[in-house]
Design goal:
The strands form 3 sheets. A 7-stranded mixed sheet has the order 1-2-9-6-5-3-4, with helices on both faces. It has a two-stranded antiparallel sheet with strand order 7-8. A two-stranded antiparallel ribbon has the order 10-11. Helix 13 crosses helix 14. Helices cover about 45% and strands about 20% of the residues. It contains 14 helices and 11 strands. Bound molecules: nicotinamide-adenine-dinucleotide and glycine (GLY). Glycine binds next to loops. Nicotinamide-adenine-dinucleotide (NAD) binds near residues 77, 112, 115, 142 and 179.
C-alpha cells in the first residue's frame, strides 16, 4: 500500500486538497502552479525551519518557473504577534520582483508560522492565496487545515485573526524527522483531542502504534496525519466559520489557553496546555455524570504514554477563571466549555462557573 494520501476539504468553490507523502515538498512548485495564474511565491518561515527547508521549497518553486523568495521571522509563540505581522508586511512589500495579486504565500513551518503567514496572506493587498506547508506534527494534524489564521494578544490567545482558507496543503512527513521529540509529543495532544471528540478508533490506533509514532516512522505518520486531517476536514466542511460544531475542536482549549496566558507563552507548548485542559475538562465531565471515569482514565493514560503533561501545580484558579472570561467562545460574559461525554459525544456547556473551573483544575494538582 502506498503511503501517500490526499484528503479533500469540501468547501464549495474554496475546496482544496491536503496532500500527505514523504518527500512532498518537492511537489510544492507544481502545487502552487496548479492553483493557476501564479507568477511567484513568497515563502514565510521561521528562524528554525527556514535554514532546514527554505532552500528546498525555493528549489521546487523555481523548478516550476515561479519567482521565489523567503522571509523569516524569529521562531516561537512569543512572536505570534501583530508586531511580527507588521514586520513581515514590510518585508513582503520590499521583495523583488514586487508582489502582486497573483503572488502566492507559502507558510512553511509549524502552527505559529501557519497562523502568522496565513494572516499576512489574508490582509496583504486585501488577500493573497496561501499554501500551507506544515512541518510540525501539530500543524500537520490540525492548524494547517481549516483556514483559521491569527495572532495572540496580551489578554488572550488567537484573539486577532481572520478565516483564510489555503489553496492547498502540502505535508512532507520527512520534515518531521528534524522535529525535536517534545514538539512531536506536543502535536499528539491535538490528535488525542480528535480521537476523543470524533473517532475513538484513532485512540486505538495511537495506543497500538505509540513506539512507531514516536520514532517518526513514515508509514505511521502518513496514516496518523491522514486520519486526523480527515476528521478536521469533515468538521470544517460542516461549519467553516465556527457558528456551531466546529467549536467542538476546542475541547481542552478553554482552560488550556488560559494556562498558556497564565504561565506565559514561552513557558509551555500549546499541545501541553491542551493536554492539561483536556484532563481538567474531563474532571468536570465526570463530576457532571457525562463521562465515565474509565474513559477519562483512558485518555489520561494515552496522554502519559505520549509524554504529555497531565499534572501541573501552582495554577491560580481565580486567575484562570478571569482569563477564561476572555475566551473567544465566551458569550455575554458567560464562559463556555466543550465537554466530552461518551467518546465521540461532545457538547458545548454555557453554564460554567468559577467553582467548576476551580474543581476542574483540582485534577491537575493531584498526585
Ligand atoms: P511552532 O510553530 O512554534 O513550532 C514548534 C517549534 O518547532 C518551533 O520552534 C519551530 O521552529 C520548530 N519546528 C517546526 N517544524 C520543525 C521541523 N520540521 N524541524 C525542526 N524544528 C521545527 O508551534 P506548533 O506547536 O507547531 O503550533 C502551535 C501554534 O498553532 C499555536 O500558536 C496554536 O495556537 C496554533 N494552532 C492553530 C490552529 C489553527 O486552526 N489555526 C490549530 C491548532 C493550533
Ligand atoms: N483548532 C481549532 C479549529 O481549527 O477550529
Amino acid at each position: 500500500m502506498t503511503m501517500e494520501r490526499t484528503v479533500r476539504v469540501e468547501l464549495g468553490p474554496q475546496s482544496y486538497d491536503v496532500h500527505i507523502a514523504p518527500g512532498a515538498l518537492a511537489e510544492l512548485g507544481a502545487t502552487v502552479a496548479a492553483l493557476g495564474s501564479a507568477t511567484g511565491a513568497v515563502v514565510i518561515t521561521d528562524s528554525n525551519v527556514g535554514p532546514l527547508y527554505g532552500a528546498r521549497a525555493v528549489e521546487s518553486l523555481r523548478a516550476a518557473s515561479l519567482a521565489a523568495s523567503v522571509i523569516e521571522f524569529p521562531a516561537g509563540e512569543v512572536n505570534k504577534t501583530l508586531a511580527t505581522v507588521d514586520s513581515l508586511l514590510d518585508d513582503l512589500l520590499a521583495v523583488a520582483p514586487p508582489i502582486d495579486r497573483n503572488t502566492v504565500i507559502v507558510a512553511l513551518g509549524g502552527g505559529v508560522v501557519g497562523d502568522v503567514a496565513g494572516l499576512v496572506a489574508a490582509i496583504a493587498l486585501r488577500g493573497l492565496r496561501v499554501v500551507q506547508c506544515p512541518t510540525s506534527l501539530l500543524a500537520c494534524v490540525d492548524s494547517s487545515v481549516g483556514g483559521k489564521t491569527g495572532v495572540d494578544h496580551a489578554t488572550g490567545k488567537n484573539l486577532i485573526g481572520a478565516f483564510h482558507q489555503p489553496g492547498a496543503v502540502v505535508v512532507d512527513v520527512e520534515t518531521l524527522t528534524t522535529l525535536p521529540r517534545e514538539e512531536l509529543c506536543n502535536g499528539l495532544a491535538e490528535s488525542v483531542k480528535h480521537g476523543a471528540i470524533r473517532d475513538a478508533a484513532l485512540l486505538d490506533f495511537i495506543e497500538a502504534h505509540v513506539a512507531d509514532i514516536l520514532d517518526c516512522d513514515a508509514e505511521s505518520m502518513c496514516e496518523l496525519i491522514g486520519r486526523n486531517v480527515a476528521i478536521k476536514a469533515a468538521v470544517v466542511a460542516d461549519d467553516e466559520k465556527e457558528t456551531g460544531n466546529r467549536a467542538h475542536l476546542n475541547f481542552g482549549h478553554t482552560i488550556g489557553h488560559a494556562i498558556e496566558v497564565c504561565v506565559g507563552y514561552d513557558a509551555i507548548r500549546h499541545g501541553e496546555a491542551v493536554s492539561l485542559g483536556m484532563i481538567a475538562a474531563n474532571r468536570l465531565a465526570v463530576s457532571r455524570g457525562l463521562m465515565a471515569s474509565a474513559d477519562a482514565n483512558r485518555i489520561e493514560r494515552v496522554l502519559v504514554s505520549l509524554s504529555l503533561p497531565v499534572r501541573r501545580g501552582g495554577l491560580d484558579a481565580d486567575e484562570i477563571w478571569a482569563i477564561c472570561q476572555h475566551d473567544k467562545k465566551a458569550r455575554g460574559g458567560k464562559v463556555r466549555m466543550v465537554l466530552v461525554g461518551a467518546l465521540e459525544t461532545v457538547a458545548i456547556h454555557d453554564d460554567i462557573t468559577a467553582a467548576d473551573v476551580a474543581m476542574a483544575l483540582g485534577a491537575l494538582g493531584e498526585e
